[in-house]
Amino acid sequence: MLITGATLADGRVRDVRIGDDGRIDAVAEGLGADAGERVLEARGRHLLPGAVDVHVHFREPGGSHKETWTSGSKSAAAGGVTTVVDQPNTSPPTVDGDAFDGKAALAADSLVDYGINGGVTPDWDPESLFERPLFALGEVFLADSTGDMGIDGDLFADALDAAAARDVPVTVHAEDATLFDESALDGDLGGSGTAATADAWSAYRTADAEIAAVERALAAAADRDARVHVAHTSTPEAVDAVVEAREDGAGESDGDGAGTDAAPRVTCEVTPHHLYLSRERARSLGTFGRMNPPLRSESRREALFARLAEGDVDVVATDHAPHTVEEKRTGLVDAPSGVPGVETLYPLLLESVRKGELSLERVRDVVAANPAETFGLDRKGRVAEGRDADLVLVDTADPREIEAAALHSAPAWTPFEGLRGVFPEVTLVRGEVVYERDPATGAASFGDPVGRNVRES
Ligand SMILES: NC(=O)N[C@@H](CC(=O)O)C(=O)O
Ligand SMILES: [Zn+2]
Ligand SMILES: [Zn+2]
């Protein structure tokens, strides 16, 4: 296939040829089409690397009433996400080799490439997990969230040791439950849609609980020269702690080469919901705005966004955590935590580019280049010769209103309803069209499940 006249994130206008092996053959000017070659005319539109969303919960096995690999990966493809990394809080949890194999068999339904993380619980089996083509350890829960997989500091230390010995990165859900404010949940919280319920969750799972847990995780990682990726940092303070830890550790090596990798030793991730929603919005979302870590104050949200714009945030990943409408409606204490987001990641960020709040290169870096580099995916994350042809074609001047009804995740709701997003027209995974939207009618069509485990090739 030849893509002609596409504008790249840095503004260059180029033709891109994709080889039969699904890799980018050439990025150049004036490439002529070969006989019989499919040509995709891209003049006036941007060609971006497919996003690498290192944090999704596709719910299988055990939660297919919430989402499946099919529905989740369709949602990813329609949002320009070409690689997803699934988290271990499924049922059974992905904490041993057998559970890994069971999930890997289900992931064969995926339209996009994927990684499968291994979890840590008191009965995890590191030996059998590490024998598998594991993406990373994580998310390792330092406090309970969906799936109740919270562990103590000793087990976390063991997990860091096991991972560091193999130079495997560890993704951490950092909250300290001893610093939650139980009193926030006292009294009459009203129904699921009320302001009291939504705001109470933010008051309960305090910012201090996240900041303290992030600092402790970074200290434990530094002691062991472990590679730690802090998931869903929701506070500017936590981002600053990661930046500081990275600066402290720069250039350090324990002499065995483990500290000299190109990838940074500690990185942080921020979600779209913490970048675009705050407690102000939570008041109208009710329990649909409940997630862990929770939405923060508008001033913290602004400070988090500023850190993204300035380059302190390494990765934006979605923590796509679908639950059904019925489950979310059960009231503050019983409703599960989590919001969907894999389909609106690129659209929300591209709308910020359109409005002049972020550069397109920054967006490309945080959704594609940086996550690929952080997790050692040499063939993902860039529009460059030799890389996989995981590509997104988008008209960056054409925003539309985000409506749950037009999205493809199984639970038909989104916390971003009514915001604007710039959605892809075409998404390719290793040169195969997995998603196409007719610009005239808006009709979506999907390709075959071509997804592969990115740790197997
Ligand atoms: N973020 C959430 O609120 N929920 C996630 C789990 C998690 O990432 O903590 C889920 O799996 O539902
Ligand atoms: Zn989490
Ligand atoms: Zn998560």
TrEMBL record:
Its EC number is 3.5.2.3. Zn(2+) 2 binds at residues 139, 173, 232. One of its GO terms (cellular component) is cytoplasm. GO terms for biological process: 'de novo' UMP biosynthetic process; purine nucleobase catabolic process. One of its GO terms (molecular function) is dihydroorotase activity. The active site is at residue 319. Pfam families: Amidohydro_1 (PF01979). InterPro entries: Amidohydro-rel, DHOase, DHOase/Allantoinase_Hydrolase, Dihydroorotase_CS, Metal-dep_hydrolase_composite, Metal_Hydrolase. Binds 2 Zn(2+) ions per subunit. The keyword Metal-binding applies. It catalyses: (S)-dihydroorotate + H2O = N-carbamoyl-L-aspartate + H(+). Its cofactor is Zn(2+). CDD domains: DHOase_IIb. Pathway: Pyrimidine metabolism; UMP biosynthesis via de novo pathway; (S)-dihydroorotate from bicarbonate: step 3/3. Coiled coil: none annotated. Residues 47-412 form the Amidohydrolase-related domain. Zn(2+) 1 binds at residues 55, 57, 139, 319. Substrate binds at residues 57-59, 89, 323. Keywords: Hydrolase, Metal-binding, Pyrimidine biosynthesis, Zinc. PANTHER family: ALLANTOINASE (PTHR43668). HAMAP family: PyrC_classI_A. Catalyzes the reversible cyclization of carbamoyl aspartate to dihydroorotate. Belongs to the metallo-dependent hydrolases superfamily. DHOase family. Class I DHOase subfamily. This is Dihydroorotase.
